[in-house]
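hi! just following up on the protien thing from before. the input was this:
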Amino acid sequence: MHPIKALLLLLVLSSLASTTFAQSKDKKASTRTEKFSPQVEKLLSQMTLEEKAGQMTQVDLSQFVKQDLPGGIIDQAKLDNGIKKYGIGSILNNGKNHAQTLATWHKIINTIDSTCATTRLKIPIIYGIDAIHGPTYLVEGTLFAQNIGLACSRNQEMAKKLGALTGHQTRMSGVQWNFAPVLDVGRQPLWSRFCETFGEDPYITTVLGSELIKGMQGDNLKSTTSVAACMKHFIGYSWPFSGKDRTPTYMPDWMMREYFLPPFQAAVKAGAKTIMINSGELNGEPVHASSYLLTDVLRKELGFKGIAVTDWEDINNLHTRHKIASNLKEATYLSVMAGIDMSMTPYTFDFANYVVELVKEGRIPMDRIDLSVGRILQTKADLGLFENAKAPNATLEQTVLPSHEALSLEASREAIVLLKNQVNALPLNKTKTFLVVGPAADWLPSLSGSWSYSWQGNSPEFYPSKYKSFLGAFTEKIGKANVSYFKGCEFDSLGKNNIDQIVKSAFNVDEVIVVLGEAAYAEVPGNIDDLTLPAIQIELAKRLSETGKKLTLVLLEGRPRVIREIEPLFNGIVLGMIPGPKGGEAISEILFGEYNPNGKLPFTYPRYPNNYILYDYKYCEYVRGAAVYPAPKLEPGYYPQYDFGHGLSYTTYKYSDLKISTDTVVADASFTISINVQNTGKIAGKEAVDLFITDLYASVTPAAKRVRGFTKVSLNPNETKTVSFTLTKADLAFVNLKGKTITEEGGFEILLGGLKKQFYFKEKAKAITSNKKQTEVKKNK
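and the predicted 3d structure came back as:
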């Protein structure tokens, strides 16, 4: 055969072989092990690659809104491009950076749904929003205390009710997916999202976060009052080494599992439908590109089956910020293969285009795409969106209920912590005259913080008129004639204020209320370099103290700003943190004794800006320099302004009769701890009861104590109630240096209401042989 003919024949045969291989590869049975409902599997079999890539794409509403017209006016041509051409699976946000009316939301959602109905497969959009502490972007919506305030309340039932409130008002507006709750454990108080956490304790975060999820999702996701919850941000986001938002985190694997993983593990068990990924990097690896975290830990270990969605532009950030991908296409490949299901793009359709290219090139298997798309479609099916994705035909009266406003006020009351009350400085006497001073006094955003009718929450013009600032609520209690007001200073500067004039005016009143703290902020814009309260606010407090007038401090802040210099100047200090838009009313009630405060700190309030030793410190952190300095120079390492769990009341409580059902806990047997709590004061109150347990000796240095239970009791004067906790060996476990959760034999100590009691745990019922741990326990006894 002629060489040229032979070469041509070889090329033809190679081409045929290649085509046959490609066809056989296309017809090859799926190796995907995760299966979905028959409805979803059928849809997957009908969809093109382009349609599947579109489902994995989430775009901001701003790309479909006519920017020169009022909010909610959809540009149909732009919407057609997104839905009909690209087949996008999700839309998020509100398009105008501030809250919309219920009627506008209904128009937006129904226009989107009508457009989806004209597509080939009629797959509905799942709409997502950040309803962090109530329906953030609903003009008439009911907001409540941020998570940090909810943690102050220690009220599990309240958490579930607030979750249900959020689900009700959000779904009634037509939105089906809520990017909440935040389950990041707040162990870095400098972090700008601290107020969105439940504080520094993993157990409190675990319990309250799970209750919020149960409330949001309800018993039936298809209900018009339920939304799909989104646990976030997986994982390590809240422990930035620098304290700045979206900056690197460094922690060993055992630490991640001990402190930061439990809330997510519990949320998966609670049925959370979706999860959002940490924007930052953990130990040098961006989480959006970590197959270890997104597949091995999240999917295989925790068993999560729902949607893993990125945070804002975070696939692109693998290229632009983290610098591990040389271009956006490579970033797409890394994130999808790591375990991402949906990309919050949010301004382009590039992600969908890259997915198509990568599959056609053979770099991403179709089974991998079907897995993500199946999860997305299954969530839509679980929400009932294939039957009806339109906004409920609900009126404002059916959406915002009177009971919601009452619940918001109650949540604000329980979120407030009375930090200091020397010589019975509080409650205040209503017959006195007052000067109210401070940048937070007449500023609604200081009560509600981030995600309040806008992203930053710092635009009071978007707040409903039904809410009052602290000054407004305080003045309403005793009348304008008895209240004078000066702003005093801006949050970070003097501004146009004259402190000399303010000090002079203080001589004309009986007492001074100083309202200090922070303006609203969210994420990166809230980054600061120093946890100390701004110098101008400290100066204002010092100057007012020179008048000799009785001073009361009200703190409205998203994180514990250091007040060491001015704390001694005040006999009474009330911490509002971020109590919600009803917070002004709630604080005023507490100041005048109309409500008995019962909040307790879910974090350690630092005394110094560089001493962040937390309540569950290691023993070697407690005393600094013991081996070097003589005794007079010893300084305690754990030396906070206020302890974790601190919180005063206008009544008094007595703890007694601490009991444990057995002195020796064996294997998997449960055991009960009980204590009597008595109200020994003259007024009714609520007492938050924290149960701490200490592992006396362990193979990994044990924490001084760990929360292993909490509850809240209401007590009338002289009333006594027995509080009980039932635990198992799982509550005694810790994560060892190999990343395994274990419970070791040995002695433990209970700390409850200032009382202590020891017990022993052994793995088997046989007699315990002598060992160091047993000997040490006997010595302690």
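Residues 359 and 631 are 69 Å apart (CA to CA).
The first strand starts at residue 57 and ends at 60.
cheers
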